[in-house]
Specification:
This protein is of the alpha+beta class and 362 residues long. The chain has helices at 2-13, 43-50, 62-67, 69-77, 166-183, 185-195, 205-231, 239-258, 266-287, 295-323, 328-355, and strands spanning 23-31, 34-42, 80-83, 86-97, 100-110, 118-123, 134-140, 145-150, 156-160. The strands form 2 sheets. A 6-stranded mixed sheet has the order 4-5-2-1-7-8. Helix 7 (205-231) packs parallel to helix 9 (266-287).
Length: 362
């Protein structure tokens, strides 16, 4: 039971990160004997790192951002290197992404008389402030487009005109899929809400495992369908609508544990709401700016990564939940208390996303 409590507490310790995690978007393209680049960094992250809101009114104006131009350049480009070339900062612009405003840092990369056959990229933005931060790279040095995910555990990458192998890029997307399910607390809480009652519905482990298998498989199949449709631009929904619907699905799944409406066929619930969650997963791949030649690799790798992440959660949760299912601690604190807390937290997310608010509850 102590192990289960540790798992639950670890889960809720990260609820404050239920919204989109910290990302930056780095684009590189060959130009003459060097490179031209653009680096989009969230204003909220720069505010946390160096402070942008001079008057403390909670809003960052263009004037405040422009006044910090040199400081932003100094901070950012001290944490990016493309050896053996030299980075030369350029103009500062602003752009809107699905999760807010971003500073757009334009720059050139001077490499002397010729662009080297291979460059070493080193990336350490926010490494000392946020271990979950990711840099999403898209580079075209030759005929092929290269994509990669950089972060504190992977700060260096070799770039060449030949690009990277399909296996390397597949592993990138698979790792990103695992990472996204582990830090995507809205997706994770939806899955947990469906797993909580599984061990209470039957006295034997095998039927409980089969029920969980159907739930997880239905969720995976459903989000794979809409992930593919969204990535192929067949269907497109507004991000705010998708994120609000995802939060609503978590609320309904948790409330169903407290006041059961759907007791049998929960895999159908997982499938129905999994279709919505697939659009949320698609936003992660869309942010990478995927080229068409990498699309299949990305979809398969990311989906398998998400599935692997889900199976790790099930493997950690289910045996302990089954072993403690008869205890008062599981039935009252974990099942009832956990479902109520999930519903409360998800309702907060839903209100924030629908009305574009920050309630500050968590």
């Amino acid at each position: 039971m102590r192990i289960l409590l540790v798992l639950v507490l670890s889960l809720f310790a990260g609820l404050c990160k239920a919204h989109k995690p910290s990302d930056s978007y780095l684009t590189l393209g060959a130009e003459g004997h060097g490179l031209r680049g653009q680096w989009d960094i969230a204003l909220r992250d720069l505010e946390h790192a160096i402070g942008l809101d001079a008057d403390g009114d909670g809003a960052i104006t263009w004037g405040e951002l422009r006044a910090k131009h040199r400081e932003i350049d100094a901070y950012a480009f001290a944490r990016l290197a493309l050896r053996p070339c030299a980075i030369q900062p350029g103009a500062l612009l602003v752009d809107q992404h699905t999760d807010g405003a971003y500073a757009v840092l334009q720059f050139t990369v001077a490499c002397g008389e010729a662009l080297p056959g291979e460059l070493e990229l080193e990336y350490s933005l926010f490494a000392d402030l946020d271990p979950t931060h990711r840099g999403l790279l898209r580079a075209r040095l030759g005929a092929r487009t290269l994509t990669a995910v950089l972060g504190p555990e992977r700060p260096k990458l070799a770039l060449s005109a030949e690009g990277r192998s399909g296996v390397e890029q597949f592993l990138d997307y698979a790792r990103e899929g695992v990472w996204h399910i582990w830090i995507g607390f809205d997706h994770l809480l939806f899955l947990i809400s469906l797993l909580l009652p599984a061990v209470l519905a039957t006295p034997r482990f095998a039927p409980a495992l089969w029920d969980v298998f159907k739930v997880v498989t239905a969720f995976t199949v459903a989000h794979s369908i809409t992930l593919a449709l969204a990535a192929l631009a067949v269907v497109s929904l507004p991000s705010r609508l998708v994120e609000s619907a995802i939060a609503a699905s978590v609320v309904l799944a948790a409330l169903n544990n407290l006041w059961p409406v759907v007791q049998r066929g929960r895999w159908l619930v997982a499938f129905a709401f999994g279709l919505i969650h697939g659009f949320g997963f698609a936003s992660v791949l869309a942010d990478l700016g995927l080229p068409q030649e990498n699309l299949l690799v990305a979809l398969v790798g990311f989906n398998l990564g998400v599935e692997a992440g889900q199976l790790c959660v099930v493997a950690a949760f289910l045996p302990i939940a089954y072993a403690t299912r008869h205890t008062w601690m599981y039935r009252r604190m974990v099942f009832v208390g956990g479902s109520a807390l999930i519903a409360l937290v998800a309702a907060t997310w839903m209100i924030e996303r629908v009305f574009d608010l920050k309630l500050g509850l968590i």
